Amino acid sequence: MNRREFTQAMLAAGAAIPFGITRAAGQTRGGTLNTIIQPEPPLLVTAFNQQQPTLTLGGKIYESLLKYGADLKPMPGMAQSWEISPDGLTYTFKLFPNITFHDGKPMTSEDVVFSCMKVLTETHPRARQNFARVASAEAPDPLTVVFKLKQPFAPFLGCFDCTSAPIVPKHIYEGTDYRKNPLNDKAIGTGPFKLKEWVRGSHVHLVRHEGYYLKDQPYLDEIIYRIIPDSASRALALENGTVQLAQWTDVEFFDVQRFKAQKNLEVTTKGYEYFAPHQWLEMNNRIAPMNDKRFRQAVMHLIDRDALAKRVYFGSAKVATGPISSKTKFYDGKVKRYDYSIDKAKALLDEMGLKPDTNGKRAEIKYIVPPYGESYQRAGEFFRQSFARVGIDLVLVGTDMAGWAEKVGNWDYEMTQNLLYQLGDPALGVSRTYVSSNIKKGILFSNTEGYSNPEVDRLFDEAAVTLDEAKRLELYSKVQQILVEDVPVAWTLELEYPIIYDKAFKNIVSTGIGSHETFGSVYKS
Amino acid sequence: MIRLGSAATIGLMALSRIAQLVAVILLIATFNFVLVRAAPGDPAQVMAGQSGASDPKLLEDLRKEYGLDKPYAVQLASYLGRVVRLDLGYSYRQRRAVVDLILERLPATLLLTVTAFCLALLIGTTLGALAGLAAGSVLDTVFTVLSLVLYATPVFWLGLMLVLVFSVTLGWLPPFGYETINVKLSPLEHALDIAKHMIMPVTSLAAIYLAIYARLMRSSIIEVAQQDFIKTARAKGLSGPSIVVGHMLRNALVPVVTVAGMQAGALVGGAVVIETVFAWPGLGRLTFDALLQRDYPLLLGIFLILSIVVIVLNLLTDLIYRLIDPRMTTGAA
């Protein structure tokens, strides 16, 4: 698809959307959805905190201009249509009329401009990078927003989901210290649900926003998020019906199978397409032996990733073939494959001179177990056994979140496991791990492994500003081939988190954002 | 009639005690500060780590907002200044006053732990005394085995098993939480609702304390029974019950009171495991979360309150000793 076709498709997509979304047959109003939130979020304003529980809960309270389907194509959010200029520099969004904040004040294009250009560029790391590309943002009338970019940025239309660009009220935040605004406790957004009560340590109670702009929505009366810190207790709550929905890591992977057998529950791995959680074994490329490409290639061979997916993640994962997830745009499945082969791993280690001593030991490497739950501990054990087969002692080191963040962020580690969301486009969620410009000490989720390749930098940079999809595919294919050859990190799995819910509830998964969605269209049959 | 000189001496002693107390509290506050900061990482890194996104500006902003950009000594001095002014500060993460957060969670914790503690103390000492008095009998063996089993049972496992049986299988009790959410209840119904929610967490928590007190009381009774003054009481012709109540129990209780006094401090700190398993919104869980999130002001506030409670409870334990055994009164010897 060339630039003109792309633009036309975008125009058509916007124009094809009916004005206002009305209730379909069979959707009834009423009912309470009890679900889980863990850990307890520090606050509910997604503009100021982007932890997963904050986004899950805040996604019901705050909205953005767009949503994304499972195919990652944009869908109307608060914007009912949008246009892109042929040069790819001007994006014009038309908002739905009659959108109001939870305090009754109207939401207009001024709020969108203020949120994106003032608040988010101050408080939201991802949005700061995205909107730094904007030369100007204007609100020519209350229902029109125009963004003019400094240079084309192909995935700009992918920057408007509720987690990346939540819209906050200008009349509340203008001229204040955003993070310390006392009304943060009220969490005033435009979403279909508004905050009624937050009993710390117990639950968060959301109720219907009566002034919601989509006819009849939300269908549910209320959503109650219960704070249940223990994973076994969460599983029991789902089992006995105390809660009717579990998402993300609410339920441990080893518990998922038994819920598949529970008749009243639906288990799906859909709804994570936009995030496409991609996991890898991260190796500090600055330190021997990890600084040798052959060692990193050996690591790809020595891990039985099929077994890892089956035995540690109990089938809730798919083997990753390279830096881009198969769910993300521009995935190239034809890259070089590393099969599970201890012999090939040994041969590579021998070739680089890392030979076993008289005790059969080649090296000792410290592996920091990420503090993200039981599965990461089990994966650490799995890796330790895998490395032992080629004579490498993997010493597992436990730590908590603060310790892990400090060690990895400051490059003070040898090996660990990491996971990042791909956010629908390599320019948004993939390149940050590999480009030299993102090697920033002290900053987590940057290029912490220290990989640097000028050709990779060039390809990622060019692909980000190229509008032609075919050309982008070509550029990303090249970069995938280079990265898979260089193995800056050893990609292990594409995690497929489950969403488990009571079948009485419909539309739980309606987009590629899954449980971060507004839930305005969720109803109880 | 108190003479002037005596009153002045008491006043000086009181002042001296207060000065000592203030010094001890400041020392504890300093120690807590150093201890908490010795852990790797800081709250800005944790927040960035949990967000899945980070950049230098975010870290810089957060550190500036939390005052972590200032020199270590300045931060310590600022903290001690606040302690002197009885200001526990503001939670980084929860963006609320530390004292509010603690007071919000304290009632739930006290309700859980004090109930469990009292039940365990009452039942444990009674069973321990009965077992000790009937040492070597079948009853003693049953009690001993039972207390050993309870002592060895992991508290989280017991909690989960109770949930499995009484909530999932039988459906008699709510699986977790402090109260039923989103219903309107009369005050009496509300109290009963909370009581219903308490049954399983209190039972789980009381089990281990009960075992400790039962075992301690049993061995203490057996030891006291062999003392000369018991033989003397018997020789004097005192009845069995009066020997048990008037001589044995009072003496046997001393080690139990010592252990109970030491454990009472932990009651305020909450029971992290039980609060986690039963999603009980208490102080223990708050402390644990604050530790993981490096929420320094909240952690320091909780530690300071706990330290003061422990000091006060130690004083109370001393007083109870003297009630049980007048020989321990200072200057009585």
UniProtKB/TrEMBL annotation, chain A:
Gene Ontology process terms (BP): peptide transport
Localisation: Periplasm
Location of the Solute-binding protein family domain: 73-436
Gene Ontology molecular function terms on file: peptide transmembrane transporter activity
Cellular component aspect of the GO annotation: ATP-binding cassette (ABC) transporter complex; outer membrane-bounded periplasmic space
Keyword Signal attached: yes
Keywords in alphabetical order: Signal
Broad class of the protein's primary localization: periplasm
Family: Belongs to the bacterial solute-binding protein 5 family.
Protein name: Peptide/nickel transport system substrate-binding protein
From TrEMBL, chain B:
One cellular-component annotation, GO: plasma membrane
Keyword terms: Cell membrane, Membrane, Transmembrane, Transmembrane helix, Transport
ABC transmembrane type-1 domain span: 106-317
Bilayer topology term: Multi-pass membrane protein
Main location: membrane
InterPro entries found in the cross-reference section: BPD_transp_1_N, MetI-like, MetI-like_sf
Example GO biological process: transmembrane transport
Similarity section: Belongs to the binding-protein-dependent transport system permease family.
Name of the protein in question: Peptide/nickel transport system permease protein
Organism listed in the record: Bradyrhizobium yuanmingense
